[in-house]
């Protein structure tokens, strides 16, 4: 990761006014090496966008994958979140959850597709998130299967409300999902309480597999931290990006 080419990154900051949320939302857009607006690109949509860039090093990972590992160039759109409103937007029972889904599908996606040559097929879009960001990403795919077929979840908060949402589905053979969970995540403290994320992910895995989800599931030694997630992010991206 010390090759200087990996750190020459083009990241644009865009501000998107949202009528649905009643505020502006910052979106960081990574453009790959050799970017050409006459071409078209797959796109990774990240919840907690600033954290994915700062702590997940996703742009550095992307440069290495594209420059040295033969991965097709792709764009990344990292959507910022106000920490004070994060749970209300990302948790299924949150008061802003429905509004955030509307923002994402009705405002963010059209904005990105108007401004950048990103592909619109559901198989060319990846939703990525950590913890509750993984939760909202999975719910977006389940609620809008005509828009999203790929989810990358880093220690997703797949608690009972999400498990119940999965149970409503009968066939998820169209869904491609990468799940990473740490073996040291049995007592994760959140503002809503302390939860066993490991057991929650194991339960969600069983439900998803029963419904034929195309799933890569990994349990690794690690805690509920970016220091654990960042090293496994490329594995999920390579799995879900188009061949």
UniProtKB/TrEMBL annotation:
<protein>
    <recommendedName>
        <fullName>Esterase family protein</fullName>
    </recommendedName>
</protein>
<dbReference type="InterPro" id="IPR050583">
    <property type="entry name" value="Mycobacterial_A85_antigen"/>
</dbReference>
<dbReference type="InterPro" id="IPR029058">
    <property type="entry name" value="AB_hydrolase_fold"/>
</dbReference>
<dbReference type="Pfam" id="PF00756">
    <property type="entry name" value="Esterase"/>
</dbReference>
<dbReference type="InterPro" id="IPR000801">
    <property type="entry name" value="Esterase-like"/>
</dbReference>
